[in-house]
UniProtKB/TrEMBL annotation:
<comment type="similarity">
    <text>Belongs to the class-I aminoacyl-tRNA synthetase family. Glutamate--tRNA ligase type 1 subfamily.</text>
</comment>
<dbReference type="GO" id="GO:0005524">
    <property type="term" value="F:ATP binding"/>
</dbReference>
<dbReference type="InterPro" id="IPR014729">
    <property type="entry name" value="Rossmann-like_a/b/a_fold"/>
</dbReference>
<keyword id="KW-0436">Ligase</keyword>
<dbReference type="InterPro" id="IPR020058">
    <property type="entry name" value="Glu/Gln-tRNA-synth_Ib_cat-dom"/>
</dbReference>
<dbReference type="Pfam" id="PF00749">
    <property type="entry name" value="tRNA-synt_1c"/>
</dbReference>
<dbReference type="InterPro" id="IPR008925">
    <property type="entry name" value="aa_tRNA-synth_I_cd-bd_sf"/>
</dbReference>
<feature type="short sequence motif" description="'KMSKS' region">
    <location>
        <begin position="243"/>
        <end position="247"/>
    </location>
</feature>
<dbReference type="GO" id="GO:0005829">
    <property type="term" value="C:cytosol"/>
</dbReference>
<protein>
    <recommendedName>
        <fullName>Glutamate--tRNA ligase</fullName>
        <ecNumber>6.1.1.17</ecNumber>
    </recommendedName>
</protein>
<keyword id="KW-0963">Cytoplasm</keyword>
<feature type="binding site">
    <location>
        <position position="246"/>
    </location>
    <ligand>
        <name>ATP</name>
    </ligand>
</feature>
<keyword id="KW-0030">Aminoacyl-tRNA synthetase</keyword>
<feature type="domain" description="Aminoacyl-tRNA synthetase class I anticodon-binding">
    <location>
        <begin position="336"/>
        <end position="466"/>
    </location>
</feature>
<dbReference type="InterPro" id="IPR045462">
    <property type="entry name" value="aa-tRNA-synth_I_cd-bd"/>
</dbReference>
<dbReference type="InterPro" id="IPR033910">
    <property type="entry name" value="GluRS_core"/>
</dbReference>
<keyword id="KW-0547">Nucleotide-binding</keyword>
Length: 480
């Protein structure tokens, strides 16, 4: 089936600001973004903030921040559903005037009594209002809700691009409430009116909304509006095959930023979580936009795999521009509540990226590998590095220092200087690199000693070696 539409594609994401932005919401937003961007269409953001008790400004900001971190740019301004309440009510009243809806005066006690009687008779508890076809002259002077007149016979078929044709028996659809007795619109009404007014052509959302589609279609048909193309995507499961939740670890978007995953890697992994393009696992945004279509979405739930996420992220870090990495690291540190880098640390980290980004899967890993570039003198040593202290290490560094002092600070020259010491002292590279590694980084596991010296420069490298030799001499004298 072709994804080409006669009119421009318009998609949307419509999260509720009642908590952290869920990773599943992020994936739905990504799919909607890819589909629109790949077709020159529009991608819109609507904040469904009609739940005034649970909706918060901080959650709304969290949605905006999550979208910004993921790089999912949207067209125009974010729309507040709550601010459009009068428009929603206007549609409900219009349906009432057209005879597509009706006033229902049944109280909650009456509705519950109806359901108790139905349960006793083992009949359907679907509420059948006695006011559906009542004469307006019989209306009492009391609060009422406005209900849609749902079809009672036949079937409603949701033509879904992922799930296929899904059939619902109309006798199982209730006369859902459109407008509450206090005049506020329900979610089901607001969603349809907003999608229509925003020109949404394709609704991509979780398959937990599939049944809602059948009910929402009643409003589209009553108003004579075109029904959008539906694509209900499976939920994300944890490794145990159950719906992704806190028991599986992080589920909020901001948690993944705080754990140091690159946004490009996150987009790549989420795109592959329930959608496929042949056997391609690693791809760029441009490729994803060109390839993404609704037919490639799987019907079965996808399982979140942290190892696969890390592998994809590592590949993205390896090809990212240094400036982009530095910018994202600043965002990561802020999200993780870590201190910001100083200007000197930024400069040295930028110089160190070439020798650390190719083997890092997350930003914490990268920062750990670049530890040597971020610390200041005197460099603290870990337990393994301290084992290098002593007269043997000092002898090696005393032999090496004059060669480094006279060498031009280039890789070949530094490698030659180390080679001369190896030859003169009849030592293997590891024996020379051990104390040098501890002196430069205070760690026993580091990038190449040659890379570290090039990043740190002549003055800093020699100063660190000098510091180490003084500490080493003190350790040696204590041994005596």
């Amino acid at each position: 089936m072709s994804d080409t539409a006669a009119k421009p594609v318009v998609t949307r994401i419509a999260p509720s600001p009642t908590g952290d932005m869920h990773i599943g919401t992020a994936r739905t937003a990504l799919f909607s973004w890819l589909y629109a961007r790949g077709r020159g269409g529009k991608f819109l953001l609507r904040i469904e903030d009609t739940d005034r008790v649970r909706s918060t400004d901080s959650a709304t900001q969290g949605i905006l921040d999550g979208m910004a971190w993921l790089g999912l740019d949207y067209d125009g301004e974010a729309v507040s559903q709550f601010e459009r309440a009068e428009r929603h009510a206007e549609v409900a009243r219009e349906m009432l005037e057209m005879g597509k809806a009706y006033k229902c005066f049944s109280t909650q006690d009456e509705i519950e009594a109806f359901r108790e009687e139905a349960r006793a008779k083992k009949e359907s508890t679907l509420f059948r209002s006695p006011w559906r076809d009542a004469d307006p002259s019989s209306y009492p002077d009391m609060p009422y809700v406005i209900r849609v007149k749902a079809p009672r016979e036949g079937v409603t078929v949701v033509k879904d691009r992922v799930q296929g044709d899904v059939t619902f028996k109309n006798d199982q659809l209730d006369d859902m409430i459109l407008l509450r007795s206090d005049g506020t619109p329900t979610y089901m009404l607001a969603v349809v009116v907003d999608d229509q007014d925003m020109g949404v052509t394709h609704v991509i959302r979780g398959d937990d909304h599939l049944a809602n589609a059948a009910r929402q279609m009643m409003i589209y048909e009553a108003m004579g509006w075109p029904v959008p193309v539906y694509a209900h995507i499976p939920l994300i499961f944890g490794p145990d095959g159950k719906k992704m939740s806190k028991r599986h670890g992080a589920v909020g978007v901001k948690e993944y930023q705080a754990m140091g995953y690159p946004a490009a890697g996150m987009r790549n992994y989420l795109a592959r979580l329930g959608w496929s393009h042949g056997d391609d696992e690693f791809f760029t945004d441009a490729q994803a936009q060109a390839w993404f279509d609704l037919d490639g979405i799987n019907k079965a739930p996808a399982r979140f795999d942290t190892k696969k996420l890390e592998n994809i992220c590592g590949q993205h870090i390896a090809i990212m521009a240094d400036a982009e990495i530095l910018s994202e690291i600043e965002g990561y540190l802020a999200a993780a509540g870590e201190p910001a880098l100083t200007s000197q640390q930024k400069e040295r980290l930028g110089a160190a990226l070439d020798c650390v980004k190719g083997s890092s899967k997350t930003y914490p890993q990268l920062i750990e590998k670049a530890h040597f570039a971020l610390v200041s003198r005197p460099v603290d040593m870990d337990e393994k590095a301290e084992k290098q202290l002593g007269s043997v290490s000092n002898g090696i560094l005393e032999e090496l220092t004059p060669h480094l002092q006279s060498a031009s600070w280039e890789r070949d020259a530094l490698e030659e200087a180390v080679g001369r010491v190896m030859e003169a002292m009849e030592l293997g590279f590891g024996k020379v690199a051990g104390p040098l590694r501890s002196a430069l980084a205070g760690r026993a596991v580091t990038p190449s000693v040659l890379d570290m010296m090039l990043v740190l420069g002549r003055e800093e490298s020699l100063a660190r070696i000098g510091d180490f030799m003084r500490i080493s001499a003190q350790a040696a004298s204590q041994e005596e």
